[in-house]
Amino acid sequence: MKLYNYFRSSAAFRVRIALNLKGLEYEYVSKALLKNEHRAADYLALNPEGLIPALAVDDTVITQSLAIVEYLDEVHPQPPLLPADPLARAQVRSMALAIACDIHPLNNLRVLNHVRRLGQNDDGVNAWYRHWVSEGFRGLEQQVAKHSSARRYCFGDSLSLADVCLAPQMYNARRFDCDLTPFPTLVAVSTHLETLPAFDAARPEVQPDAR
Amino acid sequence: MKLYNYFRSSAAFRVRIALNLKGLEYEYVSKALLKNEHRAADYLALNPEGLIPALAVDDTVITQSLAIVEYLDEVHPQPPLLPADPLARAQVRSMALAIACDIHPLNNLRVLNHVRRLGQNDDGVNAWYRHWVSEGFRGLEQQVAKHSSARRYCFGDSLSLADVCLAPQMYNARRFDCDLTPFPTLVAVSTHLETLPAFDAARPEVQPDAR
C-alpha cells in the first residue's frame, strides 16, 4: 500500500495512526501542500479531489481519511476500531465525525488561505481557527466525559476511531495555541493516547518529509 | 425513534432519505435553526454538539448524520446503503465524505453567519458558498463519472450512502444558484434520484416545519 501523505496533514495523521495500530507496512509518498504538489496533474489523476491523504491499494485509490480507516478496519479487524454493538458503533462514529466534519474541514490549510484572501490577517486567521476548535470541542468534551471509562480513551476502555481522530485534532489545537482549559477530559484522553507507540510514531515531526 | 430535524438542514435531509429508504416510521421534532432552538438548553442536554440532526433511539441519542445513516444501515440492512466488497464500500464512503466533510460543513448556516461577521455581504457569502461547492463537485464529478454505471446512481447501479449525500447537496447547490454546467454526471444522477419516492418525500419543502 502507498499512502499519499504530508507530515502536517491532520487527516493523514489519522491514517498513519490506524496503519500503525494495525501493524501494516506502507510506502510513504509525500505531497507537500505548501508546494501545491497535491494539485499537480499526476496526483489529480490519482485523486481528483486534490486532497491529502489517499491510500493506493493495488490499482484502487481510496480518498477521505475516514473511508480509509473504515476500510483498514474491515480488512484488518485487529485491533478493532469500532465496538461490536450498533449503538456503541454509532456513538464512536459520532465523535469521530464531530471532529472530521465539524472542526477539521473548517481549519485545514486551503480554508485558512481562503479566509486570508477575504482580508483576514494572522490574528484573524488564528481567531477563526480557535473559534471552530472551541465550538467543536465544547460538545465533544461532554460526549467523551459521558462515555469514557477512565479518561484513557474516548469511548469505554478501548481504542476506537474516535481516538484516531482526537489525537491529531488535539495536536493541531496545541499548535494554534487554543485554550484547552474547558476540555479537561479531551486533554486527559489525548495525554494517554500520546503514550501509545502507534500514536507516537504517527506524529508529524517524525515523518520523513518533516526534516 | 425521534428525529431532531429542520426542513432546510442538508444533513437532516440525508437522514430523512435513509429513514424513507428503510421504510422506518419516526417522530419529526423540529428545531428551528433560525430561532436558535438547536442551542436551547433542552436540546443541548440531548445533543451537546448543538447541531441538527440527532436521532433518539430509546434513551440513546445519535448525533452526526453519517453516524445515524450507518447505524440505520447496520440495524435495518434492507435495502443496503453500502456494497459488500470492502474496496467498493470504501469508494462509496469516499464520495459521501467528500460531500459531508469537504463541502457541506463549510457552507452550513453557522459558518455562513460567521463569514458574514468577518465583513462579507450577501455577495461575499454567496461567493463563499459557490466556491466550496465548485471545489468539491469538481473532484466528485470525476469519481462518479468513473464509478456510475448508467448515471442513475453515484456508484455502480444501485443506491448507496453516496446518493443519500449527493441529493441534498445538489438541492442546496441549486438554491444558491451554483453553476452546475461543469458537473453533468452529478446533475444526471441527482435528476434520477429526485424521481425516487424516498428522496421526494424527504425534500425540505414538504416537511411539516416548512409550512
Task: Give a description of the structure.
2 copies of one chain form a homodimer. With 211 residues, the first copy, chain A, is α+β, with helices and mostly antiparallel strands. The first copy, chain A, is built from 10 helices and 4 strands. Chain A has a 4-stranded mixed beta sheet with strand order 2-1-3-4, with helices on one face. The model of chain A has no long low-confidence stretch (mean pLDDT 97). The interface between A and B is large, with 51 and 51 residues. Chains A, B: Belongs to the GST superfamily. Zeta family. Chains A, B: It holds the Pfam family GST_N.
Strand adjacency order, main sheet of chain A: 2-1-3-4
Question: What kind of sheet is the major sheet of chain A?
Answer: 4 strands, mixed
What count of domains describes the coordinates of chain A?
Answer: 2
CATH topology of the largest domain in chain A: Glutathione S-transferase Yfyf (Class Pi), Chain A, domain 2
Radius of gyration of chain A: 17 Å
Query: Looking at the structure, what is the overall shape of chain A?
Result: globular
Secondary-structure element pattern of chain A, one letter each: EHEHEEHHHHHHHH
CATH first level of the largest domain in chain A: Mainly Alpha
Q: Indicate the mean pLDDT of chain A.
A: 97
What percent of the residues of chain A sit in helical stretches (DSSP H or I)?
40-55%
The oligomerization state is homodimer
Architecture of the largest domain in chain A, according to CATH?
Answer: Up-down Bundle
User: Which residues of chain A sit in consecutive blocks of at least 5 with pLDDT less than 50?
Assistant: none
* Total beta strands of chain A: 4
